Amino acid sequence: MKTTFPDVNALNRRWVLVDAQGQVLGRLATRIALALRGKHRPTYTPYLDTGDFVVVINAEKVKVTGRKLSQKTYARYSGYPGGLKRSTLEDLLQRSPDRVIRQAVKGMLPDGPLARRILGNLKVYAGAAHPHQAQQLQPMQGLPKATT
Predict the structure, then answer these.
(1) Domain range 15-64+95-139, CATH class
(2) Is the pTM of this model over 0.85?
(3) pLDDT of amino acid 145
(4) At what angle do helices 97-107 and 25-37 cross, to 10 degrees?
């Protein structure tokens, strides 16, 4: 029995559109991470980038449950003494909502150079407008429609 390895150059990668409006942040991030890694494909290989490109729109309208808006904090460090900056989820959603989804997806990918490369296949936009019209975006399967 022979083992076959997928040819990364011959993969049929899709461009997937995800509307984050009304979606719960963590559940949305898991589905995006699985699509980025390619775990939904039969040609999935853990050490290769076999996933799709994912475009997320309406990142500013993502939902969170409980009291996460005021209690969840994000920290970033500049590398200098006293350079630790903390902000809440509510502040970050107002300032740059694309970073919230990007951080959630990044936390669900494995550490290392492959994950950093895979994260480059994620495009997140705060509003409904995006510059990827030419890629023939397909809606992501398995995501329920947002209820408002």
Answers:
(1) alpha beta
(2) yes
(3) 56
(4) 60
